[in-house]
Amino acid sequence: MSNFMRILPQGSAAGLQPSDMTDPGAFTTDDKTELNDTFFATADESILTGVWECAPCREEIDSYPVHEMMSVISGSVTLTDPAGNSETFTAGDVFFIPKGTPCVWEITETLRKFYMIAS
């Protein structure tokens, strides 16, 4: 058995499961779908990696809670800093948000991403 793991865009054999990381009031359409499949987690969950999908939503984040590297599989997310500078990330883009970053996180088209989180 190998120690390597392939992180699949459709999730593992168990598939993406319902998730509740997004505040229900943050969704911007009638679609409230949020799914996750964690492929790896350390015992203390200080390191996580997997696939996450979420319907359009908008959240003002005072302090991003973790260090997170993401690769967009599909969809679109726009991040805006307190000065009003924004970046939009779409399929194929890889980006990083350092812990403590204030931002507005806005998914404009259902987002599916690979993630690697370090808390």
Verbal overview:
This protein is mainly beta and 119 residues long. It has strands at residues 17-18, 34-41, 47-54, 57-61, 67-80, 86-90, 94-97, 103-118. Strands 1, 2, 3, 4, 5, 6, 7 and 8 form an 8-stranded antiparallel β-sheet that branches.
In short:
The protein is an all-beta fold and 119 residues long. The protein contains no helices and eight strands. Strands 1, 2, 3, 4, 5, 6, 7 and 8 form an eight-stranded antiparallel sheet that branches.
Percent helix range: under 10%
The largest sheet is: 8 strands, antiparallel
Radius of gyration: 14 Å
Overall strand count: 8
CATH 4th-level superfamily: Jelly Rolls
Please trace the helix and strand order, writing H or E for each element: EEEEEEEE
CATH names the topology as Jelly Rolls
- Secondary structure category: mainly beta
Q: What value does the average pLDDT take?
A: 95
Spatial shape: globular
What's the structural blueprint in terms of helices and strands?
Elements: E1 17-18, E2 34-41, E3 47-54, E4 57-61, E5 67-80, E6 86-90, E7 94-97, E8 103-118
Antiparallel strand pairs: 1-2, 2-3, 3-8, 4-8, 5-6, 5-7, 5-8
